[in-house]
Amino acid sequence: MTTLLETTENYVTRLLTEELDHRYLYHNLKHTQRVVQNTKVLLEHSNLDENDRQALLLAAWLHDTGYTKGSADHEKE
Question: Among 4, 5, 45, 65, fewest CB within 10 Å belongs to which?
Fold first, then answer.
């Protein structure tokens, strides 16, 4: 795992643990961790280069962090 991925994982884990409203039962840390794991499985069967692999893993980690600001426009956040 690269330093950027490690830093992102730590950041997202802290963010979703400490700042996400507990009423989000689906878009939470466990969901994000499942998305990351499933992304890794898909990457095992791809021919993508390392930069694209890292970009997809970063996107998987960050994809729902906007929910810490609410559900409206969470993608933009």
Answer: 45
